[in-house]
Design goal:
transmembrane helix, basic amino acid transmembrane transporter activity, transmembrane, 328 residues, mainly alpha
Length: 328
């Protein structure tokens, strides 16, 4: 017969299960956003690489400290997911860079051929003005709304496709009419699935209420592998804490969050909050709190950075940018 968990263990288990669902779904919104935009310019590669380093350290830390197989499996999933989104961004960045290079080369060739033609004075004047107008148009485009041209400019040449074709091929640029509602419903689904998953798992005997903290045991000084594992855990927490800084700087420099999936950061906020709440609600013992401190700093510190990115979403929204530029 299963031992009924006390209130702290139950709350910790539910929060931990919601956190697990959040992490599993974390990268899906951004992967979809990159696919639709056919671009990975929105994400800072430094952000992704530091995050990958943190996940790798987390995986090896779990292996060295002999954590539960489920924890090791989840850490492995994080590494695979990181590699997938890094490969996706690298692919789109390479393809778009080559496409821009070919476009610029054709424009230069066309400009050279125009200047070399022997035509009438009117045609000659028009030919000479055309590159200037083209450069002026590109300059005004690049200085209008900072960052607003960087993800979708590659696809403008395909704008003559009919709407049905754009939807089928993933080229539909129609903005979400109510993103906050859809994101709220997505988060609500994560909470429901997480809570239901813990309840079903407990009934099936999957969760062990005797140790639901999700933290490694206190390392034994006689076991160097455990000490290495704990050190890697601390290092991974530092990586998670530092990973978003390049993304925040990139958003600030470009004055844009276009191409970033808001749900990606909402799921991150949910995962970090529920993980920290799970750890704190499991036990309030002083020694336990000290042992959990690096993970708590990594979770709650990352939440602060997520709130900064949310502020950037608001600050650099197209509506505010257009209002600041005086566009009616």
């Amino acid at each position: 017969m299963l031992k009924a968990p006390d209130a702290g263990e139950a709350i910790s288990g539910v929060f931990g299960s919601v956190s697990l669902v959040s992490w599993i779904c974390l990268l899906l919104p951004q992967l979809i956003a990159n696919y639709k935009a056919k671009s990975g310019d929105a994400l800072s590669m430094k952000f992704l690489i530091i995050w990958l380093v943190g996940d790798i350290a987390n995986l090896f830390g779990a292996l060295f400290t002999s954590l539960a197989p489920s924890t090791i499996a989840l850490a492995s999933y994080f590494c695979v997911a990181d590699l997938i989104i890094i490969c996706q961004c690298s692919y789109y960045n390479t393809v778009n860079a080559r496409r821009r290079s070919r476009t610029e080369q054709r424009r230069r060739d066309s400009s050279t051929a125009t200047h070399d033609t022997d035509a009438t004075a009117v045609v000659s004047d028009a030919s000479e003005d055309e590159p200037l107008l083209e450069r002026s148009r590109r300059r005004s485009e690049s200085t209008g709304l900072p960052g607003s041209h960087r993800r979708h400019s590659v696809r403008r040449a395909e704008s003559n496709l009919d709407p049905l074709t754009r939807i089928i091929t993933g080229e539909d640029d129609t903005p979400d009419s109510n993103p906050w509602l859809h994101n709220t419903l997505s988060l609500l689904a994560v909470w429901i699935i997480g809570a239901a998953g813990w309840f079903i798992g407990f009934k099936m005997g999957v969760w062990d209420v005797s140790d639901g903290s999700g933290l490694p045991d206190e390392p034994d000084a006689a076991n160097p592998m455990a000490l290495v594992g704990m050190s890697l855990g601390y290092f991974s927490a530092v990586c998670y804490l530092c990973a978003r800084i390049p993304q925040i700087i990139k958003n600030y420099q470009e004055k844009s969050c276009e191409g970033l999936a808001l749900l990606f950061f909402l799921l991150s906020l949910t995962g970090n909050f529920t993980y920290g709440a799970s750890v704190l609600s499991y036990s309030q013992d002083k020694d336990y709190f000290i042992r959990a401190l690096p993970w708590l700093l990594g979770s709650f510190g990352t939440m602060v950075e997520d709130f900064i990115i949310f502020f950037q979403f608001r600050l650099y929204s197209p509506e505010r940018q257009a209002k600041a530029a005086g566009t009616p």
